[in-house]
Amino acid sequence: MAELLSMKELEKTFIMHYLHGEHVVGCKNISFDLNEGEFIGITGKSGAGKSTILKTIYRTYLPTGGKLIFHSDQYGSIDLVTATEREMIALRKKEIGYVSQFLNVMPRVTALEVVMDAILEMGVSAYEAEEKAKNMLAHFRLPESLWDSFPKTFSGGEKLRLNLAQAMVKKPKLLLLDEPTASLDEASKRSVKEMIEQLKQSGTSMIGIFHDLEFMESVVDSHYHLENGVLNKKMVV
């Protein structure tokens, strides 16, 4: 199985300027490898640094140490720690997706347009983008009556389902999932699981952080637990 991402001693330290420059460690000495089509789940207490790991990979946070070697279609082997902003924008458009618990979209863009825009970035036609967007919104059980509505009016669960649709419709090489089942009912969780299984079969690799251990263990291949800054591998039953 080919390696997609190799993380070596990743570190992120925050400088708290309002506390006279005090340094706060978000994560430190984080190392693991992710193969193509593999799903790694990360658990740990709130504040342990789980989201920080995902955000440093996506480069929402700029890492302060270590290496993140990503095997890209566009750039070959590239270190995400030192990649330029231009390179990261290109990778986010076509190769790396991120599902947050929070939806951040333009104010007057409809739900259908949110998902369509994600596909149009891949260079497909408007007709194909619309068809794929509608199929993905239907898969995540977002009512058709909401497709032409503005997401700011949606409930928390509806916003999360739209986030999932927006990220998963692109079938990226690497998908980062931050609590992908938070605020979802059981039917919606089944939709997420089905899409995760489809993405894995098509070769997408994933890293997710979870509090829902039962759901996590039903989809991941490897489980790491973060505690006191140390990442330990657990057995997956």
TrEMBL record:
Keyword line: ATP-binding, Lyase, Nucleotide-binding, Transport
InterPro entries referenced in this protein's UniProt entry, alphabetically: AAA+_ATPase, ABC_transporter-like_ATP-bd, CP_lyase_PhnL, ECF_ABC_transporter_ATP-bd, P-loop_NTPase
Ranges where the ABC transporter domain occurs: 5-237
Cellular component terms per the entry's GO annotation: ATP-binding cassette (ABC) transporter complex
Signal peptide: none
Source superkingdom: Bacteria
UniProt xrefs under PROSITE patterns: ABC_TRANSPORTER_2
GO-annotated molecular function: ATP binding; ATP hydrolysis activity; ATPase-coupled transmembrane transporter activity; lyase activity
Family the entry assigns: Belongs to the ABC transporter superfamily.
Protein name per Swiss-Prot or TrEMBL: Phosphonate C-P lyase system protein PhnL
